[in-house]
Amino acid sequence: MAAIVAMACLATGVLAEGPQDRATSFATCTGRWSAVMEHEWLMGRDGSEAEMRRATFVTLLEAAMPDPAVDAPDLLHLRIAAKHALAHLLQQADLGTDPATARRARAMARNQLAPCRTLLLG
């Protein structure tokens, strides 16, 4: 499954060719979908779509990791940083008191998720 998704992503130009680049993309998207999932839960919403997408990226990340013993700590750090950055935007978008700031945060959050949406078919 990971190979098929990776080939499709290469064809669309979303991912670079190397395994480390794929792992970096998958780690970033895992973190971002983790933020969406948790934000949905905190806001009293279902979050099942985000949970499914996050689980898919976890699987892809595990399959794409070139050398887990070496790469796992760096990729985990990347996941956490991506999650934290998107969580901050989602909080500003939904809980911020300034409408202009909330709109900008919402747009930035959408822009951060767009490449991750592109990586998954359907």
Q: Can you put this structure into words, describing what you see?
A:
- There is one protein chain.
- With about 120 residues, the chain is mainly alpha-helical.
- The chain has one domain.
- The protein is about 85% helix and about 0% strand.
- It has 5 helices and no strands.
- It has helices at about 1-10, 20-40, 50-65, 70-95, 100-120.
- Helix 4 runs antiparallel to helix 5.
- The chain is elongated.
- It starts with a helix and ends with a helix.
Keywords summarizing the entry:
single chain; mainly alpha; 5 helices; 0% strand; elongated
What's the multimeric state?
Answer: single chain
Order of helices and strands: HHHHH
Topology, number of strands:
0
- Please identify the structural class as seen in this structure: mainly alpha
Q: Note the total helix count.
A: 5
Percent of residues in helices: over 70%
Radius of gyration: 15 Å
Mean pLDDT: 86
Largest sheet: none
**What is the strand content?**
under 5%
Total individual domains: 1
Distance between the termini: 14 Å
Shape: elongated
Low-pLDDT residue intervals, each spanning 5 or more residues: 1-13
